[in-house]
Write a sequence for this structure.
């Protein structure tokens, strides 16, 4: 593969990173690099995202999430209950392990299960609803997705204020998901899914690693809630991971961290151009919900959160906007691309079916939640 093909492949794989780097580079032509650049990044957010991604990657490396899935599947007695379990597994797990990790873990798991029971014709709708569930469930906590980590850290809002901004929509989302699944026509097919111990591979040193990851996860939570300083915890985590499992450190999505960094540079530079700063601040004032949702449809909700946060103090409304804005187009939440790419790989030639089902269900959920937001005066 020549260099041009490699570059094209890289851009397709990391489009948001490339766009962020380009924005930062162009803005640097107008605001030449100087000492002020050092103050652009939110280092607390960057360290928090790194720590949480590392710990979750650690849990994933020892198979904790797959084990949880197998245990829960013992309770599935019908296709309807199976779909409910899988969708709400994504919904609730995303609150702690982030939406993208929930999908990376449970989408392949879902395809495997539906193949085992020979019901692959039903898997598309379940995967689409799992994707919606992960994107909406993740808004419930400050650690559920990158935009929450960033806005909660940046704004200094209380947990009560955070909860008021997102929990009504989390509750409504759960009700909508349950309604969609429960209103499926009754199916008399009975399921018998074997989940004995031989199905689950226990990695060497499982208990020791599990204990370490739980303790590190708790330390991360203490940082999130501002009970511990971020820098010492980050250094402790790196030291523990170097001793425990260095491969986990290599599996962290460093391009996401660099994407944040480049957007910090871009926003920092734009804010130093007084005319643009005043125009954007005036335009955004009182319209955070509208612009947050619209921007997310085009550039995805994480970049939208970073970009728009530089021009408004109403971070609570922006938090609601970028979380609801994760619905809609395929790029509105980059986590959705995980589902699309996996489904397209497993079922070649059916990507169009996925896009149609995905768009239809996303627009329906988005319409209902935006209406709720307008009624609640978000």
């Amino acid at each position: 593969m020549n260099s041009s093909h490699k570059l094209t492949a890289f851009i397709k794989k990391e489009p948001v990173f490339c766009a962020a780097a380009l924005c930062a580079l162009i803005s640097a032509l107008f605001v030449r690099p100087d000492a002020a650049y050092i103050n652009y990044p939110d280092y607390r957010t960057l360290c928090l995202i790194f720590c949480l991604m590392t710990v979750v990657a650690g849990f994933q490396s020892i198979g904790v999430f797959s084990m949880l899935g197998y245990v829960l599947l013992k309770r599935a007695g019908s296709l309807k209950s199976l779909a409910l379990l899988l969708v709400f597994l994504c919904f609730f797990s995303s609150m702690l392990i982030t939406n993208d990790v929930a999908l990376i873990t449970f989408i392949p798991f879902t395809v495997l299960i539906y193949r085992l029971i020979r019901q692959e014709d039903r898997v598309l709708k379940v995967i689409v609803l799992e994707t919606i569930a992960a994107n909406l469930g993740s808004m419930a906590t400050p650690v559920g997705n990158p935009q929450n980590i960033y806005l909660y850290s940046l704004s200094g809002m209380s947990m009560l204020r955070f909860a008021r901004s997102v929990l009504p929509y989390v509750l409504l989302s759960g009700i909508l998901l349950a309604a969609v699944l429960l209103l499926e026509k009754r199916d008399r097919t009975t399921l018998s899914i074997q989940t004995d111990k031989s199905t689950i591979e226990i990695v060497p040193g499982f208990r020791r690693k599990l204990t370490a990851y739980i303790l590190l996860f708790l330390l991360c939570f203490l940082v999130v809630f501002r009970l511990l300083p971020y820098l010492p915890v980050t250094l402790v985590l790196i030291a523990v991971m170097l001793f425990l499992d260095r491969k986990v450190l290599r599996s962290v999505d460093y391009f996401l961290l660099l994407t944040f960094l480049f957007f910090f540079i871009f926003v920092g530079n734009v804010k130093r151009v007084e005319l643009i700063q005043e125009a954007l601040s005036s335009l955004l004032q009182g319209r955070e919900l509208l612009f947050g949702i619209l921007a997310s449809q085009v550039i995805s909700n994480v970049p939208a959160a970073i970009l728009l946060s530089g021009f408004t103090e109403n971070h609570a409304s922006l938090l609601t906007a970028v979380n609801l804005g994760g619905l809609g187009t395929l790029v509105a939440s980059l986590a959705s691309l995980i589902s699309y790419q996996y489904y397209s790989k497993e079922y070649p030639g059916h990507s169009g079916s996925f896009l149609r089902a995905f768009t239809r269900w996303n627009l329906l959920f988005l319409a209902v939640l935006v209406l709720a937001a307008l009624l609640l005066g978000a």
Observations:
- The radius of gyration is 21 Å.
- Residues 49 and 146 are 7 Å apart (CA to CA).
